[in-house]
Every structure is written in C-alpha cells, then in structure tokens.
Amino acid sequence: xxxxxxxxxxxxxxxxxxxxxxxxxxxxxxxxxxxxxxxxxxxxxxxxxxxxxxxxxxxxxxxxxxxxxxxxxxxxxxxxxxxxxxxxxxxxxxxxxxxxxxxxxxxxxxxxxxxxxxxxxxxxxxxxxxxxxxxxxxxxxxxxxxxxxxxxxxxxxxxxxxxxxxxxxxxxxxxxxxxxxxxxxxxxxxxxxxxxxxxxxxxxxxxxxxxxxxxxxxxxxxxxxxxxxxxxxxxxxxxxxxxxxxxxxxxxxxxxxxxxxxxxxxxxxxxxxxxxxxxxxxxxxxxxxxxxxxxxxxxxxxxxxxxxxxxxxxxxxxxxxxxxxxxxxxxxxxxxxxxxxxxxxxxxxxxxxxxxxxxxxxxxxxxxxxxxxxxxxxxxxxxxxxxxxxxxxxxxxxxxxxxxxxxxxxxxxxxxxxxxxxxxxxxxxxxxxxxxxxxxxxxxxxxxxxxxxxxxxxxxxxxxxxxxxxxxxxxxxxxxxxxxxxxxxxxxxxxxxxxxxxxxxxxxxxxxxxxxxxxxxxxxxxxxxxxxxxxxxxxxxxxxxxxxxxxxxxxxxxxxxxxxxxxxxxxxxxxxxxxxxxxxxxxxxxxxxxxxxxxxxxxxxxxxxxxxxxxxxxxxxxxxxxxxxxxxxxxxxxxxxxxxxxxxxxxxxxxxxxxxxxxxxxxxxxxxxxxxxxxxxxxxxxxxxxxxxxxxxx
Length: 698
Description:
The protein has 698 residues and is α/β, with parallel strands linked by helices. It is built from 23 helices and 31 strands.
C-alpha cells in the first residue's frame, strides 16, 4: 500500500518524520510510505512572536494539502496541532515518543555560573518565559524564532545567553551534548503533547483508520455498581491499569483509589440535572484520549447498559472506528431487591418483572400504559426447551413476527455465541446452529435489531487468543489482551518454582563480576530469593540481560541492567554484546531454569569468561482440563511449546496463527514442524504487537 506523507521541510521535521515512517513500515510491512517535504506559515514568517501566532501556524499548509488530496496524511509535532483539528480531518498520536522535558541550553562549555548579571534569555512561550523569570530574575527576555539549529546558532553568536528548547527536539537531532540542564517537569510542566508526533488524515480515509486501530487501546466502559463493593474484579483490574478515568457523579469515590497515581481522573458526571461536562464534550474527551494512545476507562454507576448511556458512547466510537469493550456492572435494581428480600421473582408469586425509566429526556413522566409496556423488549431465561412454544405464544399475543430477536449463549464467558433472527425464524436459526450445551438468554425487541449488534473493531476484535507460558504471567497478559479488544484464553502450561538450593550461590553473589538473567521469570525468582535470604540488592554484581523483557522486569525493582543486546534478543545476541565488554577471566553467574540449554554458557566460555551455572527455578507442568477453540496462540517459552505438544499434539495448531516470543522459542516450534511468527520484541507485549500487525489489514 503506497502512501505519501507530508511533513515540514526543517531538519527536525524531516528527521522525526522519516524515523516515524520507518517504524510504521517495520510494524506494518504492507505499507510503502514516502515523505513529501512541505512548508507552513511558520516556515515563511520568521518575525511573529510564537506566543501570539495562529493555532495552525505550523500545520496549515500541510493539512490543506491532506484535504486537497495532494498527500495522504501529514506528520506533525503533536504540540503544534491546533485543537480542535480542522474540519474534515482525523488524527492520532504515534506511539513512539521522546522525553517530554524542556532543556536549558547555554553556550558550549558554560554553566549557570558563567551567565552575566542580566542574561538575555530566548523564549518562545509564556510558560518558558515564566520559568526564566523565576530562575533568572534579572534576565532580559527576548522572543526567539528559527529552527533548532538556527536558535542554537543565535545563542552561540552571542545574541542570547540562554535558550529553552524541547529536549525531544535535541534528542531527535542528535544534539544531546548541547543540553546544559534538564528542567524537571515539576518546575516547568511541558505541554501534554510535547515529545509526541501526530498523524493527521482525511476523516473518511479507511486506510488510516485501519492503521490507527493498530496503535490505540479499547475504550473500556466499566459498570461500577451502586457501591464500591459491587464493582466486579474485571472492572477493578481495568481501573488498575488505565491511563485515564472519566467517571460519573454517582460512582463510589472508593473505586478511584484503584486508579494509578499517575493516571488522569476526571469527574464528568451529572448532578441535580446539570452536567459537570456536556455530553458531547464527554464523547469528545473519550475519543481524544483514545486517539492519544491512552488506556481510557469510562467508569459509570450501576450497569452501563441499563440507562447508562453506553449505547450513545459506543456509537460515537464506532463511527470513528475506535475499539471498545464493556464490563457489565451490578445494577442498583439488583442490589436494592436482593438486600431487602423483595426479590424480583418469587416462586408462586410471579414469573418476571418490568423495568422502566420514570422520566424522559425533557423530565416529563415516561409512558407506562400497558400497550407501551407490551412493545418493550422481553428477556427470557432458560428458553431452549420451550422456544417453539414461546415464539408461537408471543406471535399469537400480537408480537410482530418479524420483530428482531436474539439468542445469546454463555453470556459473560469466553464461549459466548450470538444468534439473531426475526422472531418467526429464530427457532430455525437456533436449530441450524446446533448450539445446545450452554446456558441461553432469549431476547425479543427492537433493540435486538442487527444494526445494533456492535462488536469491537481493531486487529484483535473479539479474536480468541490462547495464552501459554507460566501462571505468574497470566494476569498482566490477560489485561493487555483485553485492552486490545481481544478475548484472552489463559492456558498456563508451566508453573515456575524457585529453587532453594540457588540460595547457597546467591549468598556469595558479590564474588562474581556478572550475573545473567534471561527471562522476566528469572528476575522475579532472583528477587524472591534475595528477599527471603535478606541479601542487600547492592551486593549484586553487574547484570547482563538477553532482551527488553528482562530489562522491564528489572525496572520494576528499580534496577537497571549493565549489558544487553540492542537487537537479536536471545543467547547469541547476548554473547555478541558480552564479547565487547566482558573481560577474559571475569566470573559470570549464569542464572537459569532447569530446562535451559547450555548455549549461553558455552558462548560466554568461548569469550574466556569463567561461568558458573546456577539453577534458579524449575518448570513444572500444569494440567489443563480442556483446550478451548482459539484463533491464535502465544508461546512465551520453549517449555510452553513442548508442554502444549506433549498434551495435545500439533493438530490444534494446524490452521491457527502462532507467535513465538523469540528465536529460541521459535526454534522449538520449528522442531515440532510448526511455522511461527517471531515477536518483534522479546516481550509478551511484543507478541501481541506482532499478532496485531499480522491481522492489521484483514
């Protein structure tokens, strides 16, 4: 797919846009992207103070070219994009970003101590101006214009003594050595979009909507219940991993304690008939945060689907092809009746109930006449054995034979299936499906119309992803699949248990020059043993890792690795990296599983390191009672591949997508005659990225 992307002609714009396009093509190989340098008003007008310039000063001509069809899309620095974007355009932030902090730049070799009594500070925004006033009370403030190189040249020429520049720009241009000081965000809060890139495109361009789906998360509508104790585990897990939470007024504030400390939380609810934020603005906020690549939780009281405005918010997302999911909640109706004993159904008293709203949109009293109630949707539990008779009775009593109806099997489970048909044809449709082993709900009503059946969009849209690996990986991996609008099927095939005997070597870990950790599981087991043995983490020698997954795991313990491959993650890549750093005769403690091959140890010995092997953890098989139907499988270790094949053979893998976390796991797949995709990074998230890339244009 050939696409032409516009960008400004400055060196910074060209550099960051080219990098973004190369990353996009690496993720989505079907894309063939080319750059078209262009200009905008800010490139021609070098005199206007940026503090009073038009909002689209740096984007106008590019976006006009997109709308005119001269280019397919444009890449901008996200902070330059006006809000709202021009009518007819859509957008999203690209996921690769730089440090958002600003930097103080002085002449080469100078520090604050070298500044004159009244330094001339070049500023380009009010917030930078205020920071300079606080830091340099006697300074003379002058506006500064030009691209990054020109601003630095003006500084070096003596026109200014200090300038403030976005660190992201300096990093992208390879000018990190010109950073005199990084300015903490607490001192100088950067714009929300600083360091990010934004891609704008025509709002009706399905190609870019498809590309965007690869890089955004499913907006999650959460039923918070009538009180904090009634929020489901699924809802709480989503809150614990969100980046943004937009919550209603009736939500229990106790639920907000589950939101991460660095997440955005905003009350968008309604009190006394007045909205904190207008409904149309709530819809806009949801889609804006989603397009920024954030995990958005929309927290509602009760159940979102019962007078919770879920349909309107989902329709808005559907119109933009943004993915979503809904986590059901306990309705206040259920809490009120169960807590009091006034149950809605009671044997010998009634066989059902009617649920209505008492008010219309204009606060008028809702219609409650019997004729109106007869037209409302009806839901039936346990309908399968009496479906024919039930349909006949409904039609005989005056229901339209062609009114929409649906049978929903195994609601709320991974095995959910849906059949929809006109009322007069639903029995035939159910019989043809031959589904009869799951609990079912039968619903008749206009809300069951096929056009209202809304399933999530995106590469993983409701696809069933079998997750193998160890038990400790399942919770986080399951949440990651859910945020990507997939259906996770946790199927841990191994359990990792720490080997107590490893403690003897770890007691003397400071005798070694290096230790190796080659999986997140190894990191977890290592720190479990360190804690159990009361070994100070400062006793650890230098640490070498085999890939980014290990580095991320170490970061959770506030530890950084000293060595690891930048590419070719695995034993070969680690040995190659070690060959440039590890000195002959240095002692390496090789922490490993009981099933790890000798490849890494042999490779380190080949570069003259003295290697001591230490079994840190053991793999134990986990029995799974059954294998559910799946669309793709993630293998997160060679042990998981072997465990699957030992249990079920290779037959279930014949017509499915297989993703291996790295080359060693891929080699094990190939040993069994399987052809896997190899994750683009050796992490569970990298596996899901690779799977999304594979399905992106399906």
